[in-house]
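Example complex used in Figure S2.
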Amino acid sequence: AQTVTQSQPEMSVQEAETVTLSCTYDTSENNYYLFWYKQPPSRQMILVIRQEAYKQQNATENRFSVNFQKAAKSFSLKISDSQLGDTAMYFCAFMKHEVTDKLIFGTGTRLQVFP
Amino acid sequence: EAQVTQNPRYLITVTGKKLTVTCSQNMNHEYMSWYRQDPGLGLRQIYYSMNVEVTDKGDVPEGYKVSRKEKRNFPLILESPSPNQTSLYFCASSWRPRAGELFFGEGSRLTVL
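Predicted assembly (228 residues):
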């Protein structure tokens, strides 16, 4: 069975600085997807970034980028130029390729951005 | 506006009193699912549906039922709620060509006394 581990329950960063959230996963699959979802205080889950395992290039979305290390089964999220609106719970998630859209979530990292 | 709508957003009920949490999406998505979120456990899938009249169990289906009679609706039914079903519930839908990109509802906070 697949598992996703987020070892940092809480993190904080000052506005405009860079922060990296860690995620590791365990799977025997070769083709899969990885995601970072953001859950602000409003509770709405929002997709931040998506990575397909067969792609070697790391995904980027504006200030958000990932460091995908397939051999190490590591998928960290880097947030550059942190903004107050980035304050949220961040969940790493795994999905098998072309299965049922079932996401396996980590336990989350609560990020606080300070002015 | 594309959205997934859940109701109620908040509910306090008592053990054994049947309740239904509704979920509706306006994006013509085939795939819909329910998750529950608990502190320290992240989100876990309860049930999912690949299309109308096609539903299947997720990781934590005990104590829940679902139905998918129409494409847009996917209600979650708790026939006899118990305190261990106190949780934050999310409905989600997706469009298969962009696998895994789930659109989530705003969540339903359920408390069972």
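The longest strand of chain A covers residues 88-96. Residues 59 and 83 of chain A are 20 Å apart (CA to CA).
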